[in-house]
Design brief:
It is found in: Cell membrane. The chain has 425 residues and is mainly α. The protein folds into 2 domains: 181 residues, Growth Hormone, Chain: A (Up-down Bundle), CATH 1.20.1250; 194 residues, Up-down Bundle (Growth Hormone, Chain: A). The protein contains 18 helices and no strands. Helix 14 runs antiparallel to helix 15. The longest helix has 30 residues. The radius of gyration is 27 Å and the shape is globular. The protein starts with a helix and ends in a 15-residue tail after the last helix.
Length: 425
């Protein structure tokens, strides 16, 4: 794999850490700024809103830039926004800086996915994209627990100060390792938006929304499940969440490998496995060991889908890949919101803390159904190849006769010449 993928993975690690570490330091932020924990939770919403808005907006603005320049610009905005958030004097400015920090998220991953796929070539495209996203999943294994510990010991501002430093390292790595990749000469905003006229692009975005939404429905409420249903001590939750992050990392790598070798069968298998694992979690949640094992599997099966769909949507988009790759990140965050919202409705409806897993299984089945529908649509749109007729076999002619006929057929036709009519005597 190209060394440039390391630079992309470092950037992804920083982005993943700032996105998810907020859940671990909410109490510290609430106490320092004098607000309630639910009010502090709005910082999570502000970031997600920035992702949804920034993915198409910044990609459109930077459509004519080289992808390396775009990556540097996005990482620069990310680094500055996190540094400013670390010095926020009040909740209002904090909300603004969290929104700004979310803006470059989708555009960075969109451009990064195209760079990774281009460097690796078509046969290893999905694996290369998964290597970039490896940084995002490792953030859940290392960045989030480490950032949470740092925030508990030295304050939440130290956590986001370190995130800004990671951004500086990513900037240096991108500048040094990523080669310049200029957009194609016919790249334009109109051309990028033209990809959204293709039904398969919308199929892919819907599959991401529902498929990953199933995993998020479960993971959004896993902490109370582990403490109130499985019987774990609250101090063990951070370690268990790292186990889920490890599952995400394994799933991300496995999904990339499957996508290059068995694109559609791999996607069918991942969606089916996710639905089965989520249903199993409703039973295994009563056991400490069962809950831990299933939590790992939920993380793994959820994140198998990501690299598969990123590779698929880039294939279906043709030459206009930047905008649709960024749109995948918007779909990812919409999946997060939908999964958490529907899972919360199930709990509020009195169906119990494990009920979001049933909701997630239903969403995964919807994602599987959309995948099947997308495949059927593909087959209907692809004409069958014309039948090849063996001339010798049909007519009984030997090969020499056929070759002779072919040779005659290959001769260019001579132009007809007008001959003068004979003049009668």
């Amino acid at each position: 794999m190209p060394i440039a993928l390391l630079a992309l993975a470092i950037g992804a690690f920083g982005i993943g850490t700032t996105e998810f570490v907020m859940m671990g330091v909410l109490p510290e932020i609430a106490g320092d700024l004098g607000i309630s924990i639910p009010a502090a939770g709005n910082f999570i919403t502000a970031y997600a809103l920035g992702v949804v808005v920034g993915a198409p907006l910044l990609t459109a603005v930077a459509v004519r830039l080289s992808r390396k320049t775009m990556l540097l610009a996005m990482m620069g905005v990310f680094t500055l926004s996190n540094a400013l958030f670390a010095f926020s004097p009040n909740p209002t400015t904090g909300m603004l800086f969290r929104f700004l920090a979310g803006l470059p998220h989708g555009a960075f991953f969109g451009a990064g996915a195209v760079v990774a796929a281009t460097l690796a070539g078509p046969k290893r495209r999905a694996k290369a994209v998964s290597m970039m996203f490896l940084g995002l999943t490792l953030a859940n294994v290392i960045g989030v627990p480490g950032g949470t510990f740092l925030g508990q010991q030295f304050g939440w501002r130290a956590t986001f100060g370190v995130v800004a430093l990671i951004g500086v390292v990513a900037l240096a790595a991108i500048a040094k390792l990523v080669p310049h990749q200029h957009q194609t000469t016919n790249t334009s905003l109109r051309g990028e938006l033209g990809a959204f006229r293709k039904p398969q692009v919308w199929f892919a975005l819907a599959i991401v929304t529902f498929g990953l939404g199933g995993g998020f429905a479960s993971l959004s409420y896993v902490s109370p499940v582990l403490t109130d249903v499985s019987g774990y001590d609250p101090t063990s939750v951070t370690l268990l969440l790292s186990l889920a992050g490890l599952g995400m990392t394994v799933g991300n790598v496995l999904g990339g490998r499957l996508a290059d070798r068995f694109p559609l069968p791999g996607l069918y298998g991942a969606m089916t496995a996710l639905a089965v694992v989520l249903l199993a979690f409703t039973v295994t949640a009563d056991s400490k060991i069962g809950a831990a094992v299933t939590l790992f599997l939920v993380g793994m099966t959820s994140f198998m889908v990501g690299p598969m769909m990123q590779a698929r949507i880039m294939e279906k988009a043709g030459g206009a890949q930047s905008m649709v790759s960024a749109a995948v990140q918007s779909a990812f965050n919409i999946a997060n919101s939908i999964g958490a919202y529907l899972g919360g409705l199930a709990i509020a409806g009195g169906f119990g803390l494990v009920s979001p897993n049933v909701v997630g299984a239903v969403l995964a089945v919807v994602g599987l159904t959309l995948t099947i529908a997308s495949s059927i649509y593909d087959r209907k749109r692809t004409p069958d190849p014309a039948p090849v007729v063996e001339i010798g076999a049909e007519t009984g002619e030997d090969d020499s006769t056929v070759d002779a006929v072919d040779a005659v057929d290959a001769e260019p036709a001579l132009p007809a010449q007008d001959r003068p009519e004979p003049v009668p005597a």
